[in-house]
C-alpha cells in the first residue's frame, strides 16, 4: 500500500512549494516567473520521501504547525492586499468599525486565499503523516514558523509597550496647539487625495502627476514629507495631519478594549477644535461612508458642524447608481463640494473651513470617474497610473473652478495625500524609489516656492496653522513643527525615522494622552 502511495508525494510537496514561492514573491521583489521553479523544486524533493514513508509507516498525527501556518497565511494575505502590514491599522479598524467598507473585491480574494490555505494545510498534514523524518522535526518547524511571524512579533512589541512603565519620550515632545486670535482670518480648503503620494512625480510614472505639478507652481510645495509608523492609512493620515500626532490605536488601554469607540482621540485638540474656537464654520465631505473607521465620530467630536458621507450625499446625485464600491466618484463629490462652499460663502458669518477626501486613486486599482474616462480614453481596469492621473486632474480642475468663481478669495488651499499608496500595479516601481507624501499650500498671499525638509505628516498641522496666520507657540503643535520656519527642526531632522518609529512601538504615554477619558485608570492596572 505504501509503495503505491509514495510516488504521489510530489503532489502535496508541489502544493507546499507553490505556497512558499507565493510567500517569497509577495514579501520580496522576486519576479513572478520564479514561482514555477520553486514549485518544481519542491515537487522534486517530494519524490525523495519514499524511503521515509516506507520506514516510518502511516500515523494519524496532528501536526503542530497547522496554526502557525494559518498565521503566516494571514500575514501573506495582508501583505498581498496592502503592501506593508500595519498592525496598528488592524487594531484601529477592529475598534472603530469596518461596516460600510468598499473592499468587496477583497472578499473574493479572501475566499480564494482560504481555499488555498485549506489545500496547503491538507498537503502538509498528508506528508507529516506519511514521512517519519518530517514527523520527527515538525515541532521544530512549528516553533520556527511562530517566532519568525511578523504578526506575532508585532503583537509582542505592542503588548510590551502597554505594560511598560515610564516610556514617555514621545509624550514629552508633544505640544498642545496654542495660537493667538487674528482679526481677519482666511478661509480654509483641505483636499486629501487618497493615496496620491508625491513619488508619482518621478519620471518612472510618466505624466501621471503633471496636473499636481502644474498646480504646485502657484504655491508652496514641500519635498521630503515621509511616512512614519501609525500614519499609513486614511484615518491615521487625517489625524496625523490635523492633530500633529500618529494615530496610536486605543487597543488595550481602552477601558472597554474592543468595544466600538464612542470618541476618536478625545484627549488632544486638533485642527477642527482650534479653528472652531476662532469662529470657523467647518464642513467635511467624503464620498465613502462616514461610519467606516470612525471617520464621522472623529470629525463630529473635533469641531465640525457638518459631516457628510455616502448616506447623506447619495440622495443628492442626479444618478443615484453612479457610485463605486466605496462611494461617490470624485467628479460628483467635487460638484457637491462646490455647492457646499457656495453655501458657506453665502452665509458670510465668519470664516469657513472645508475638508474633503477623494477616492480616485484608492488601491488596488482606483476608481477613475466618468469624466476622466471621456478625457483619457479606455481604462484596462488595473493600471493605477490611469487612476492617479484622473485624481490629479480632477483636483486641479476643482481648484481652478473655485478660483474662477471667486470662491477662493482670502482662502488657503491645502493639497495633500492622506498616506502613501498601498499595493498597486506600480508597486515594484514605487518601493524602489524614495517615497514621500504630497503636500502643498496655495493662496493666502503665500509666495510660490519649494521647501525641501525631512518631515512627516505630523508637521502638516502646525504648518497649516502657520500658513493661516495662526503661528503656534514655538512653531510647534502636537509632535510637529511648522515647515515654514526653518529655524525649528522637525523630529525627523533631529532624530531620524528609525528612532521615532521605535518609540511608537515601545511607548504608551502618548497613546494614553490620545485616548484620555476612554483609558482605564493607570493605577488600576498595577493592582
UniProtKB/TrEMBL annotation:
Pfam families in the record: Sulfatase
Gene3D superfamilies: Alkaline Phosphatase, subunit A
Membrane topology of this protein: Multi-pass membrane protein
Keywords carried by this UniProt record: Cell membrane, Membrane, Transmembrane, Transmembrane helix
Major place of residence: membrane
Location(s), subcellular: Cell membrane
Sulfatase N-terminal domain ranges (all copies): 186-470
Entry's transmembrane regions: 31-49, 107-128, 140-156
PANTHER family documented for this protein: LIPOTEICHOIC ACID SYNTHASE, PHOSPHOGLYCEROL TRANSFERASE I
Stated name of the protein: Sulfatase N-terminal domain-containing protein
